[in-house]
């Protein structure tokens, strides 16, 4: 039963990690993700917002990875 929970946790985290990696690799694209259709011309986020998007993606990736590691380790300690 523990193996199934860990497997499902990892499977459901794949799209989250994909978006976070996209935010790290292309923060400008992530900053305008889902927003471009609203405007006729191209929109460009500010450099501060691009930096914020990249840093928040890195921090979120680290936090989620730690949560997954602690969840897996705590499930084996039962």
Describe what this molecule looks like in 3D:
The longest helix has 30 residues. The model has no long low-confidence stretch (mean pLDDT 88). This protein has 78 residues and is mainly α. The chain is built from three helices and no strands. The two termini are 12 Å apart.
Outline the fold blueprint:
Blueprint: H1 2-25, H2 27-31, H3 47-76
Helix pairs in contact: 1-3
Q: Give the N-to-C terminal Cα separation.
A: 12 Å
Oligomer: single chain
The SS-based structural class is: mainly alpha
Question: In total, how many beta strands?
Answer: 0
Average pLDDT taken over every residue: 88
Q: State the major sheet.
A: none
Stretches where pLDDT is under 50 for at least 5 consecutive residues are none
Identify the notable features of this structure and list them briefly:
78 residues; mainly alpha; 76% helix; 0% strand
Provide a brief overview of the structure.
This protein is mostly helical. It contains three helices and no strands.
